[in-house]
Amino acid sequence: MNNLLSSDQRDALQELMNIAMGQAANAMAQLIEVRIILSIPKITAVTPEQLSGVLAEPAVWLTRQSFSGALRGEVLSLQVKAGVEAIAGYLDFGLPLTDKSTEAAVLEVANVLAAACLQGFTSQLELPTRLAAPELYRPKASTVDAAWAITLLMEVEFTLTDTPFDARVVICLDPESVQHLISRLNTMLED
Amino acid sequence: MPIAVTIADDSMMSRKNVRKAIPTHWQAEITEATNGQEALDAVFAGKAEVLFLDLTMPVLDGYDVLRALQQRHHKCAVIVISADIQPQAQTLVRSLGAFAFLRKPLEPQQLHEALAGLGLL
To answer: Is the pTM of this model over 0.80?
Structure first.
């Protein structure tokens, strides 16, 4: 599965993700006025079982936002539950959080990070997409969407120093979009 | 006499972009480093009068490199080229001695201005 990309394609994709995630971190840092620490992007082709494993972590809030256009797929955010109150405080939510305000804070973080990630990613590729509103996602055990039979999983982690906030953003592409992406990467590499 | 330049970035595409942005008339002897440790090794081997430095790298990141250079009072000119464009990151790298902070994707004009600011163009 992980032979889906050549080393040059993987390198180019990782750098595009790096730039996109940097823009997302900047968008969030402007809101909370605290520096966000970014991981090196990780890119893997995953099986449905592996994706289920990623989504089945009990200690995280999971959100999904579908996108369509020149690329189709979903942006997921995985936010460690223990860190939501800390980030909500920075976002001026009243503390302690209620169930309703927890959900609002999780969706707010998802919207800022995922929107900036996707925008940064697709604008570099010149492949415009439209992003739907985020929703909380509670996948049933061991099931994933059929469209994700082959999924390119592009993941980065955002953390804050001195708080338990930890969020990962994952972009999943459907098989047709993966081919479209590879073709675009090849064009970029030829430049 | 050529100027010793090291480009430190874990991305091959990014290193290539920096190479392409270096002015063609500038006589540079270019070394590439794929992580922070390789960057430091290049600096201490005299291969970096100018160091183009990414921040998010394996082994040692760009901040670690800047701290190591600061501890040794090393005089190489560091130009950070990073996707991490948070204001706090820019302030931090400047406090650690970086001469300039350029954002990715790199525009050649930005790089030329930074080199001019160093009196190297």
So the answer is: yes
What is the end-to-end Cα distance of chain B in Å, rounded? 14
Residue B84 domain-assigned (yes or no):
yes
| In a domain? residue B71 | yes
Angle at CA of residue B89, ends B85 and B90, nearest 5°:
75
Q: Suggest the residue from B7, B56, B101 to mutate for an interface test with chain A (most A CBs closer than 10 A).
A: B56
Helices (H), chain B: 12-21, 36-44, 62-71, 87-95, 108-117
Say how far apart CA A49 and CA A137 lie, in whole Å.
17
Residue-number span of the structural domain to which B20 is assigned: 3-115
Q: Which residue of A has its CA nearest to B20?
A: A191
pLDDT: is A150 or B78 the higher one? B78
The fold of the A7-190 domain, in CATH, is Chemotaxis protein chec (3.40.1550)
Q: Would the CB atoms of A23 and B56 count as touching at under 8 Å?
A: no
- Residue pLDDT, tens place only, A15-28: 999 999 999 999 99
Contact B83 A29 (CB under 8 A): no
Q: How confident is the model at residue B1 (pLDDT cuts 50, 70, 90)?
A: confident
The pair of three-digit structure tokens given for residue B78, joined into one six-digit string: 């560091």
